[in-house]
Amino acid sequence: MSDNEELKPQMLYTVNDAASMLTISRAHLYQLMSRNEIKYLKIGRSTRFTQKQLTDFVAKASKKADALHKRNTFTVK
C-alpha cells in the first residue's frame, strides 16, 4: 500500500471493523443490529457502517448512560 492510499479516509467499515472500533464482539454488534440500536447499510449481502453511524451510536449510548447515572445518583443533605 502506498502512502497516498494510507491517507485516504475510509468511507465504509465492515462488521469486523465496526466491532473492533467499538471494542465489542461481532456477536454483540449483531445483537445491536437486530434490536435496531445501531444503523447500518446493506450493500448486496454485505453489511457496512459509516463513520457517522458509529459515532451516532456512541453518542446515543453515552447520553443513555449519563441519564442512567444521573437517575442513580443520590445526594446527601
What do these coordinates show?
With 77 residues, the protein is mainly α. The chain has one domain: Arc Repressor Mutant, subunit A, CATH 1.10.10. The chain contains four helices and two strands; from the N terminus they run αααββα. It has helices at residues 3-7, 15-22, 26-34, 51-71; strands spanning 41-43, 46-48. It has a two-stranded antiparallel ribbon with strand order 1-2. β1 (41-43) and β2 form a beta hairpin. The longest helix is centred in the C-terminal third of the chain and has 21 residues, at 51-71. It is elongated, with a radius of gyration of 17 Å. It starts with a helix and ends in a 6-residue tail after the last helix. 6% of the residues are buried.
Provide the structure class: mainly alpha
Low-confidence stretches: none
Q: Please state the CA-atom Rg, rounded to the nearest Å.
A: 17 Å
If you consult CATH, what is the topology?
Answer: Arc Repressor Mutant, subunit A
Q: How far is the first residue's CA from the last residue's CA?
A: 62 Å
Amount of beta strand: 5-15%
Shape: elongated
Helix and strand sequence: HHHEEH
The CATH architecture can be named as Orthogonal Bundle
How is the largest sheet built, in terms of strand order? 1-2
Biggest sheet architecture = 2 strands, antiparallel
Number of helices: 4
Q: How many separate structural domains?
A: 1
What percentage of residues falls in helices of 4 or more residues? 55-70%
Task: Please write the CATH class name.
Answer: Mainly Alpha
